[in-house]
Amino acid sequence: MKSLTVLAPLLLCVTLLFSSLNVASDSAAEALAILKWKASLQSQNHSVLLSWNTSNNPNTKTSPCAWFGIHCNHADSVTKINLTGYGVKVTLHSFPFSSLPNLAELDLSTNELYGIIPPKISQLSKLTYLDLSYNQFSGQIPPEISHLVHLQTLHLAGNQLNGSIPREIGQLKFLTDLALCSNKLNGCIPASLGKLSRLVSLLLYNNSISGPIPPELGNLRNLVEVYLDTNRLTGPIPSTFGNLKKLTVLQMFTNSLSGPIPSELGNMESLSEISLYHNNLSGLIPTSFGDLRHLTVARLYENQLSGPIPEEIGNLNSLVYLELGENQLNGSIPASLGSLSNLKILHLRDNRLSGSIPNEIGNLMKLIVLKRVYLERNRLRGNISEDLGIYPNLRFIELSDNELYGEVSSNWGLCRSLQSLFIARNNLSGTIPAEIGNSRQIHRLDVSSNHLVGEIPKKISKLTSLLYLYLNGNKLSGSVPLELGLMSKLLYLDLLLDLPAKNKSKIEWKQKEEN
Ligand SMILES: *[C@@H]1O[C@H](CO)[C@@H](O)[C@H](O)[C@H]1NC(C)=O
Ligand SMILES: *[C@@H]1O[C@H](CO)[C@@H](O)[C@H](O)[C@H]1NC(C)=O
Ligand SMILES: *[C@@H]1O[C@H](CO)[C@@H](O)[C@H](O)[C@H]1NC(C)=O
Ligand SMILES: *[C@@H]1O[C@H](CO)[C@@H](O)[C@H](O)[C@H]1NC(C)=O
Ligand SMILES: *[C@@H]1O[C@H](CO)[C@@H](O)[C@H](O)[C@H]1NC(C)=O
Ligand SMILES: *[C@@H]1O[C@H](CO)[C@@H](O)[C@H](O)[C@H]1NC(C)=O
Ligand SMILES: *[C@@H]1O[C@H](CO)[C@@H](O)[C@H](O)[C@H]1NC(C)=O
Ligand SMILES: *[C@@H]1O[C@H](CO)[C@@H](O)[C@H](O)[C@H]1NC(C)=O
Ligand SMILES: *[C@@H]1O[C@H](CO)[C@@H](O)[C@H](O)[C@H]1NC(C)=O
Ligand SMILES: *[C@@H]1O[C@H](CO)[C@@H](O)[C@H](O)[C@H]1NC(C)=O
């Protein structure tokens, strides 16, 4: 307020002096209007705003054009204000909306701005770029924002905005980027967004948006990325999304979407990532998925998908993450998956997959790239004595709760990168090979509830990274090697031998510091 009273006579003076010279008086008026907003800042001595003052040179008019974060046109009228990331704490209550007729870009992101977004923002009629993301704005998105007809970018992400998305936003026909993510928005996605024909990026994730996904979004043929995840969306994935030929990323995970995955999605020829996990999608995985040649990430886990894994998925040479677990998929694992030579994670656990683990998958596991294989809780059958070979690069393999039999191969000792080996609750026989003590990276080893016999090899105590060791539910004999007690990291040990199930006690060693 102090600077305002000092400046008021100056404003009058400057206005009188230059009243015939329109341009100059505009610049001074803009400067004073900005200073009025500065006066409402919580921290007046904010170092980056020291240049926002009138004391530059008493002989010249006050112009904001050299001020920090401010840009002007050739007529010295403000066209851009950029204060991103400077810890500015203020409301927009005193912002000079009506005094900046040429403001085209306003970037106040990543500050501590708070209060509402005033409807008066619609007075910035030349605005093309508005970024108020990552502040503490609250209240609703004013529908008047739709009067900013030149807007191309509207970023309001990471605030506390509530209420629903105004359907008037559909009038912003030049909009290319709309980011309303990480707020508290509720209500439905307005179908009017389907009119934003230039839209490239639509980010609505991490809100409480409910209702169905409007099929009209399938009209937005310029869309490159769509993030609708972490909301409360219901109903089906519209088949119109098949029209989105430029779409590279489609994120719809953690909603309550239901119904089938439309086979039209196979037409999204640029698609690189699709994440539909943690929904209620049902029906088959469409064979048209095999047409998505650029796909690198396919995350469909935690749904109700049934039927077979389409063989055509083996065509997706670029695939890095194939995550189909926690569904009701049945049939056998297609041998064609062995062609996915860029795969890092194969996650098929908690399904109803049967048959044997194809040799082709075994070969894939020998490659450098594949690091994690999750096949637990299926109905896989087969003798793993020899099939499972030497995987020098594999880090995680989970085969628990299947119907595998045969012996634990001594080859496992040659898997030098192995961190986690889970083969619990199968029908393994024979002894625990001492060679396993050579896989020095192992953190978790679980061979419980099989038919293993013989002694616990002393060499297991060489597994100095071991945190969890489960050997219980077998027919192991002899004594517990004393060396196990020296394994300083061991958090959880369950190796009790032939006691009846309900009389198993667990020996727990609390870890000293780690994790
Ligand atoms: C700004 O002023 C406040 C007190 O009003 C003081 O605590 C703070 O250290 C000052 N900051 C700078 C950068 O001078
Ligand atoms: C006013 O801003 C100028 C730069 O525009 C700066 O050099 C000067 O130190 C500032 N004056 C005050 C009092 O902060
Ligand atoms: C604002 O400045 C930052 C760098 O400080 C830049 O990354 C950002 O693109 C600028 N915003 C605009 C709208 O020019
Ligand atoms: C939105 O939040 C404001 C406070 O920030 C609250 O007063 C208002 O009731 C909320 N409105 C809705 C619709 O939740
Ligand atoms: C989700 O949004 C809230 C604000 O509403 C934020 O605090 C949180 O960090 C966001 N979460 C993610 C994962 O972005
Ligand atoms: C899926 O639907 C069932 C009822 O049909 C419901 O109980 C469950 O919460 C839904 N799950 C998700 C992730 O929406
Ligand atoms: C897979 O499950 C479906 C029912 O969801 C059944 O009709 C089909 O026979 C099953 N196929 C196999 C190979 O088990
Ligand atoms: C598993 O295969 C191995 C090697 O081919 C063989 O020696 C063993 O008898 C088989 N085990 C069972 C239970 O069929
Ligand atoms: C498990 O192996 C035993 C022999 O070790 C055999 O009798 C039994 O049928 C097998 N069970 C299954 C489910 O394969
Ligand atoms: C467990 O075994 C011990 C003997 O080792 C016995 O005294 C105890 O009663 C058993 N407990 C149960 C619940 O069976």
From TrEMBL:
Pfam family, one: LRR_1
Family: Belongs to the RLP family.
Annotated source species: Gossypium raimondii
Protein name: non-specific serine/threonine protein kinase
Catalytic activity: L-threonyl-[protein] + ATP = O-phospho-L-threonyl-[protein] + ADP + H(+); L-seryl-[protein] + ATP = O-phospho-L-seryl-[protein] + ADP + H(+)
Matching InterPro entries: Leu-rich_rpt, Leu-rich_rpt_typical-subtyp, LRR_dom_sf, LRR_N_plant-typ, LRR_R13L4/SHOC2-like, StomDev_PlantInt_Reg
Residue span(s) of domain Leucine-rich repeat-containing N-terminal plant-type: 29-73
Membrane topology label: Single-pass type I membrane protein
Range of residues in the leader sequence: 1-24
Cellular location(s): Cell membrane
This protein's record includes keyword Phosphoprotein: yes
The keyword Glycoprotein is assigned to this record: yes
Keywords in alphabetical order: ATP-binding, Cell membrane, Glycoprotein, Leucine-rich repeat, Membrane, Nucleotide-binding, Phosphoprotein, Receptor, Repeat, Signal, Transferase, Transmembrane, Transmembrane helix
GO-annotated cellular components: plasma membrane
Coiled-coil annotated residue ranges, if any: none
All copies of domain Disease resistance R13L4/SHOC-2-like LRR, residue ranges: 95-203, 289-421
